[in-house]
């Protein structure tokens, strides 16, 4: 059995080197990669590799290759087409530039290997990607840039939610992401696919003491802004922490935006470590069961509301024109404004101060 395995491995490696030479020659001739050289790849010689995971999807695989954070064992391209175009051709070029072996399994084999996920005909065997300790995030001085934004996630458990949150965070310009080690989803291939590969390039860190981390950052001058749903009227009345609509938030100091678990929200310990609580107000009276948003949707709204204040953000002039000062603050916003700590003074207040 050992000899047979050795012979298969040697044959497959020779085939991989032969394909690499053909692809390189095709690239030099200006031809599209894929075609006759792809037929030289072995099809279904796919014994699982221990201690590795299968990353799937075109964008996750391509970004993982370019980021070079993972060790890549093999690239798997679905058999059945004579050539490759677009991003798949780039993926093959990236692989051959790194001497990564390439196999062409049939569709059924690839479906079974990745648990019937949507793989787009592309998978890679890679080592797992894990969050780094938050101590490696570096000490950012609040005085360096008042518009620093870190996203803090407590207990997100759905991998698709986590992936969607990472995608929004990367798109909107979040500097770093901190996750809690306890009850949190790991950085799995499902997360990477849901993030469209953003997980492969984002700076993601973790801590086993989230409340202690938040208190330490607050002591360094950061604003710790938690989030709550609008369906908790008793919280609005009893909370000792100021609560505001996200539209009233003024981003004038480095901020940690803290999002909680899909069902329970923020834990009491973490919520008590916040200096401010932000909420998203609904546009109508809502029936029971629809009072809250999916956490990934809420993250996108909150992050856009904050990041759109960044200098140089697209359509900044149009945004300012749309947000003209009302003569009187709305009764809803006024009722939510329990206090005005630093970072919570409204935009209209600041404009009035500038005029005075």
What does this structure look like?
- The chain is α/β, with parallel strands linked by helices.
- The strands form two sheets. Strands 5-8-7-6-11-9-12-10 form an eight-stranded parallel β-sheet, with helices on both faces. A four-stranded mixed β-sheet has the order 1-4-2-3.
- The longest helix is centred in the first third of the chain and has 27 residues.
- The relative contact order is 0.11.
Please trace the helix and strand order, writing H or E for each element: HEHEHEHEEEHEHEHEHEEHEHHHH
**Main sheet summary:** 8 strands, parallel
Strand percentage? 5-15%
Helix vs. strand class: alpha/beta
Instruction: Tell me the number of helical segments per DSSP (H or I, 4 or more residues long).
Output: 13
In percent, how helical is the residue content? 25-40%
Terminal Cα span: 85 Å
Q: What sort of overall outline do the alpha carbons produce when their principal axes are compared?
A: elongated
**Which strand order do you get reading across the main beta sheet?**
5-8-7-6-11-9-12-10
Oligomerization category of the chains in this entry: single chain
Q: What is the average per-residue confidence, as pLDDT, rounded to a whole number?
A: 78
Residue ranges: pLDDT <50 for 5 or more in a row?
1-43, 326-348, 350-356
Supply Rg.
Answer: 25 Å
The total count of strands amounts to 12
């Amino acid at each position: 059995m050992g000899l047979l395995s050795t012979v298969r491995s040697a044959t497959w490696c020779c085939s991989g080197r032969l394909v690499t030479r053909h692809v390189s020659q095709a690239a030099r001739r200006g031809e599209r990669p894929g075609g006759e050289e792809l037929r030289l790849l072995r099809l279904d010689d796919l014994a699982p590799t221990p201690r590795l995971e299968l990353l799937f999807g075109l964008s996750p695989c391509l970004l993982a290759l370019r980021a070079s954070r993972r060790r890549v064992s093999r690239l798997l391209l679905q058999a059945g087409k004579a050539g490759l175009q677009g991003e798949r051709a780039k993926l093959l070029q990236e692989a051959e530039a790194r001497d990564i072996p390439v196999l062409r399994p049939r569709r059924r084999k690839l479906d079974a290997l990745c648990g019937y996920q949507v793989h787009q005909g592309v998978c890679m065997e890679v080592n797992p990607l894990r969050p780094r300790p938050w101590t490696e995030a570096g000490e950012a001085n609040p005085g360096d840039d008042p518009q620093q934004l870190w996203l803090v996630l407590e207990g997100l458990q759905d991998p698709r939610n986590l992936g969607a949150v990472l995608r929004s965070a990367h798109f909107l310009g979040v500097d770093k992401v901190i996750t809690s080690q306890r009850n949190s989803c790991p950085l799995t291939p499902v997360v990477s696919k849901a993030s469209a590969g953003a997980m492969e390039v984002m700076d993601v860190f973790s801590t086993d003491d989230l409340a202690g981390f938040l208190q330490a950052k607050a002591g360094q001058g950061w604003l710790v802004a938690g989030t709550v749903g609008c369906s908790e009227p008793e919280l609005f009345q009893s909370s000792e922490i100021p609560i505001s609509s996200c539209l009233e938030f003024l981003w004038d100091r480095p901020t940690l935006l803290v999002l909680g678990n899909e069902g329970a929200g923020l834990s009491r310990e973490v919520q008590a470590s916040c200096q401010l609580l932000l909420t998203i107000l609904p546009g109508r009276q809502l029936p029971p069961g629809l009072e809250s948003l999916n956490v990934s949707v809420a993250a996108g709204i909150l992050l856009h509301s904050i990041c759109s204040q960044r200098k140089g953000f697209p359509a900044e002039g149009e945004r300012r024109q749309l947000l003209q000062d009302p003569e009187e603050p709305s009764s809803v916003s006024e009722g939510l404004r329990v206090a005005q700590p630093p970072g919570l003074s409204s935009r209209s207040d600041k404009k009035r101060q500038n005029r005075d």
